[in-house]
Specification:
With 127 residues, the chain is mostly beta strands. The protein is 0% helix and 48% strand. The strands form two sheets. Strands 2, 4, 5, 6, 9, 10 and 11 form a seven-stranded mixed sheet that branches. Strands 1-3-8-7 form a four-stranded antiparallel sheet, with no helix packed on it. The radius of gyration is 14 Å and the shape is globular.
């Protein structure tokens, strides 16, 4: 079982930056593909970024490419989401998720591939 706890959300002005962190419990963190999702009011949850087990492969939603960076530190059981040039449309609750994988290089895009979820952290971008 993996437990995930997000932190780092808050209120920021448009154009500003935030770094989200997700701390995972357990010794098997490196066996999981990690993803960041977000859900804005009245909208479906969507994937923002994902990173493979070793961190060697990443992928991003088109809406955040060039502005957000996902990374992980397996020694610290932590995955990060660096968010730059924030826009009001980035306002949402951001969730960290973990999906087990038997091989490195795998990235998951669908919510159903992630079996462990954090409680979410609110990000509000003020225009």
């Amino acid at each position: 079982q993996v437990q995930l706890v997000e932190s780092g959300g808050g209120l920021v002005q448009a154009g500003g930056s935030l770094r989200l962190s997700c701390q995972a419990s357990g010794r098997t963190f490196s066996r999981y593909v990690m993803g960041w999702f977000r859900q804005a009011p009245g909208k479906e949850r969507e994937i923002v970024a994902a990173v493979s087990r070793s961190g060697g492969r990443t992928n991003y939603a088109d809406s955040v490419k060039g502005r957000f960076t996902i990374s992980r530190n397996n020694a610290w059981n932590t995955v990060y989401l660096q968010m730059n040039s924030l826009k009001p449309e980035d306002t949402a609750v951001y969730y960290c998720a973990a999906g087990g994988s038997s091989s490195d290089g795998t990235i998951y895009y669908a919510m159903r591939s992630y079996e462990h979820w954090g409680q979410g952290t609110q990000v509000t971008v003020d225009s």
